[in-house]
């Protein structure tokens, strides 16, 4: 793929829609592309916002009054069908609204990507300073962890994009400061695919972090990177 093609993968990357091979390709591209690193910082919160926009208030009513359920006796009105039919129509209308809401959310996402390069600074808050490092495997396994250190007023936000991690057990993210002191800033369960996206936080500023490590619960270092 060309460099321009790699840029086009950013939207699907944020929304988790890439295949395994495309995700690897884009992860390689992200290591060196300042444009994609900047745009990723602006829209990395979109999947969480889309997750919050999926209410399910009517499905229970549809199940109670849908096809196959007995009609509700004695509760009818002039010119209308029974309550079961009314609830079914209401559920269908609700589903149509959700479909259009999904279309609107997708359109909004496309608009953010289209305008991000030129109008982003005018429409969004200023992008916080971000440093990217890649933690490489400590052993022979092909582990790979992209780490974004995002400057915040309270310290540092650490966004991890991990591939080929151990498939079971608990994993932890550690940071080491200039005095050599290490502290855990995130923990998560391993996934069957070895792929994880994790966010951690520390009171240390990015310039106070000297190294990041992913460890197992037993203390074995899986991947590490120097930041300075």
Tell me about this structure.
- The chain has 228 residues and is α+β, with helices and mostly antiparallel strands.
- It has a domain of 97 residues: Superoxide dismutase, copper/zinc binding domain (Immunoglobulin-like, Sandwich), CATH 2.60.40.
- The chain is 38% helix and 28% strand.
- An 8-stranded antiparallel beta sheet has the order 5-4-7-8-1-2-3-6.
- A hairpin with a 4-residue loop joins strand 4 and strand 5.
- Helix 4 packs across helix 7.
- The protein is globular.
What are the key terms here?
228 residues, alpha+beta, Immunoglobulin-like, eight-stranded antiparallel sheet, 7 helices
Structural class: alpha+beta
For this structure, the CATH topology of the domain at 130-226 is: Immunoglobulin-like
End-to-end CA span: 32 Å
The best one-word shape is globular
- CATH level-four homologous superfamily name of the domain at 130-226: Superoxide dismutase, copper/zinc binding domain
Q: If strands are numbered along the chain, what order do they take across the biggest sheet?
A: 5-4-7-8-1-2-3-6
CATH class of the domain at 130-226: Mainly Beta
Count of beta strands: 8
Count of individual helical segments: 7
Q: Cα-atom Rg, whole angstroms?
A: 24 Å
Strand content: 25-35%
Could you tell me the mean pLDDT? 74
How would you characterize the largest beta sheet? 8 strands, antiparallel
Q: Low-confidence runs (pLDDT<50, min 5 residues)?
A: 57-84
């Amino acid at each position: 793929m060309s460099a321009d093609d790699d840029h086009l993968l950013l939207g699907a990357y944020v929304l988790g829609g890439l295949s395994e091979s495309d995700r690897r390709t884009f992860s390689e591209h992200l290591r060196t592309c300042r444009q994609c690193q900047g745009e990723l910082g602006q829209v990395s919160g979109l999947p969480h916002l889309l997750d919050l926009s999926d209410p399910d208030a009517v499905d229970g009513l549809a199940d109670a009054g849908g096809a196959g359920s007995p009609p509700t006796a004695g509760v009818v009105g002039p010119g209308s069908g029974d309550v079961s039919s009314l609830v079914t129509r209401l559920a269908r209308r609700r589903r149509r609204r959700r479909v259009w809401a999904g279309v609107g959310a997708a359109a909004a996402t496309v608009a953010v990507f289209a305008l991000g390069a030129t109008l982003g600074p005018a429409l969004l808050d200023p992008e916080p300073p971000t440093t990217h490092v890649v933690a490489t495997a400590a052993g022979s396994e092909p582990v790979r962890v992209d780490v974004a250190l995002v400057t915040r007023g309270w310290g540092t936000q650490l966004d991890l994009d991990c591939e080929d991690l151990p498939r079971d057990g608990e994993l932890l993210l550690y940071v080491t400061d200039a005095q050599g002191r290490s502290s855990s800033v995130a923990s998560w369960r391993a996934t069957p695919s070895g792929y994880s996206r994790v966010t951690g936080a520390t009171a240390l500023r990015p310039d106070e972090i000297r190294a990041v490590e992913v460890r197992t619960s037993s203390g074995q270092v899986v991947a590490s990177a120097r930041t300075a």
